[in-house]
Amino acid sequence: MLLESDLNLRQLLQLSYVFAASTGFALSSLPNLGSRYLDYGSRATSAHPEHETGVTKTATPNSRQSSSWYKEGLEGLAKDDSRDAQRSTNWLYQCLYFLEKLRVPHGWFLHFYLVSVASSIFWGSKIARKTHLVVKICENVQPGGKMSVNQVVMVWSLMTVQGVRRLLECISLNTWSSSSSMWFVHWILGIWFYVSMGFAVWIEAAGKLVKHGGSIFSAAMTHRVHSTETLLQSQSPVRDITFSAPSVRTTISIPLFILASGVQHDCHTYLASLPKYTLPDHPIFHTMVCPHYTAESAIYLALAILGAPRGAWMNQTIATAFVFVAVNLAVTAAATKRWYMKKFGKEKVDYRWTMIPYIF
Hints:
Blueprint (H helix, E strand, L loop, with lengths): L8 H21 L3 H6 L3 H6 L16 H14 L6 H5 L2 H10 L2 E3 L3 H20 L3 H9 L8 H24 L8 E3 H20 L12 H6 L26 H26 L9 H5 L3 H16 L9 H29 L1 H4 L11
Antiparallel strand pairs: 1-2
Helix pairs in contact: 1-10, 1-15, 7-9, 7-10, 9-10, 9-12, 12-14, 14-15
């Protein structure tokens, strides 16, 4: 059986977010190696001179120029001073060189939001009709913090809005350079994240409780955010939707989501209006190097607060997703600041905070 009674998909999902965040942070800390794998876009282009003209030059692991960064990076991992000839035949070196060359176009970022929207639609339709798949998961996953059905509806709705907005921004605002690329693992990780978020927004509601009549959406919208009804207590079809007064967490999280979404959209619109690879001069960019990353982190923080079960401040599963997003974007923001300082001069960038004013 695919689903066994002792299977805890919630914890597996949470651990996967924490593991991915930890791995990304650890890799970024390695000298030279981190930038070769984690950088993308303009930073990847500058780190890969063979990509600058859009034509890949012939390179081999024995090339002095192409192997110099590996030599330095591996010296950070292994402190022995092996000769270059020995290092070029080292199996670890060969593997690193091969993996580094597996890159995909930067424009494939579009796939992330296509997948995000598709995942939201898939699980939304399954939950609304309370299909056999949803019931089976609810019956076999260990109960979480008893996230209510109306919370599922609201968090799912906002995640769908986020995916649709980012998809439209990618289509209308972004112009991808043919020489711009990212590591294939980055692409796979992004696909995994947005597939899993379609599942993460409701998994905390998979509790074993007595069934209750009524539609999922009508049950969701006729009670406050901390109603005790969970997925197994609601049945389809969808009935009339009514609204009740918002809870404290709803009052905090939804305005935060709207504000962060607006800030991120304004940042993306402004960045799209700039000539390629220029230093942003908008007032908000004088405070932070990457305010759009701060805004995206705040979006997932808002979802974690909105989905918090009774007695908790955050939804544990979405909170670990927030950690993954925040760590990943912090690593990217730090690399962006270093790239700005190298390209435009330290005096023009060093005074700006990376992502969080007065902290980072």
